[in-house]
């Protein structure tokens, strides 16, 4: 059943010991997308045509580089650069709009628009987008229909600010009125409780730098800075920091 393809990773993420289950889902999607791009697919014509056209964002290009398939990335970057040189060469020959300042602004600048678009396009982001949205919808679907998942949701360690906001914004379109009120109460509680927990751990982390606390136990604060970064910026660095 197709829905199970999405419920399994959602349940797995909420079963995990993580500061944000949605970050866990996002990171798994990202790792899978990077592996796909740097696997045999980079030789496929349809993939290459798309990567040549839209390239990769500044967040994902370093992850592709770390994948160690330097030949594959080199070939993709080579044909991407060839495509960009041709496009920019053509657009750079077009004169800016003439006339008044108002008319020039209204006519726009094709080269500037193209370059701005390239900075905001990414094959990895595009590949992740559909499944990522489906995971959020599935989270709300399970909350609406599965009492066991609602219990699991209520026991999680909350969410980062970004994903808390996304779930909050999407909830009215996917939950019944009765479940929406309960969802808001539960989600707000677990978010604030766990945000406060990490904040308090972070405070003790900073207090440990005071010489008077040198011999005091770290308690749960050793990785508090890492967890605070994730809670506030949706950056999962827990596992990276442990390696």
Stretches where pLDDT is under 50 for at least 5 consecutive residues are: 238-243
The N- to C-terminal Cα distance equals 37 Å
What is the domain tally?
1
Number of helices: 13
Class from secondary-structure proportions: mainly alpha
Rg from alpha-carbon coordinates: 23 Å
Helix content: over 70%
Classify the beta-strand content into a percent band. under 5%
Q: Major sheet: size, sense and barrel closure?
A: none
Annotation, overall tally of beta strands: 0
For the residues shown, what is the average pLDDT? 90
Write down the secondary-structure element order: HHHHHHHHHHHHH
Shape: globular
Structure overview:
- The chain is an all-alpha fold and 243 residues long.
- The protein has one domain (2-242).
- The protein has 13 helices and no strands.
- It has helices at 2-15, 21-38, 45-54, 60-66, 70-92, 101-107, 110-119, 123-145, 147-155, 161-174, 177-207, 224-233, 238-242.
- The radius of gyration is 23 Å and the shape is globular.
- Mean pLDDT is 90; it is low at 238-243.
């Amino acid at each position: 059943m197709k829905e199970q393809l999405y419920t399994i990773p959602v349940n797995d993420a909420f079963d995990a010991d993580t500061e944000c289950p949605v970050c866990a889902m996002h990171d798994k999607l990202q790792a899978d997308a990077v592996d796909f791009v740097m696997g045999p697919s980079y030789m496929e014509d349809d993939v290459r045509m798309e990567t040549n056209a839209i390239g990769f964002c500044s967040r994902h290009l370093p992850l592709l580089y770390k994948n160690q398939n330097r030949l594959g990335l080199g070939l993709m970057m080579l044909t991407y650069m060839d495509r960009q040189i041709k496009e920019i060469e053509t657009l750079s020959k077009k004169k800016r709009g003439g006339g008044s300042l108002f008319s020039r602004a209204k006519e726009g600048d094709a080269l500037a628009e193209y370059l701005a678009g390239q900075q905001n396009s990414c094959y990895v982001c595009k590949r992740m987008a559909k499944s990522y949205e489906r995971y959020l919808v599935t989270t709300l679907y399970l909350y609406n229909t599965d009492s066991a998942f609602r219990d699991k949701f209520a026991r999680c360690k909350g969410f980062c600010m970004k994903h808390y906001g996304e779930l909050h914004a999407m909830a009215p379109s996917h939950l019944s009125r009765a479940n929406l009120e309960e969802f808001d109460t539960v989600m707000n509680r677990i978010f604030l409780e766990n945000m406060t927990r990490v904040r308090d751990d972070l405070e003790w982390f900073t207090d440990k730098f005071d010489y008077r606390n040198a011999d005091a136990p770290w308690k749960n604060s050793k990785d508090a800075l890492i967890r605070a970064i994730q809670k506030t910026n949706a950056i999962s660095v827990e596992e990276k920091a442990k390696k």
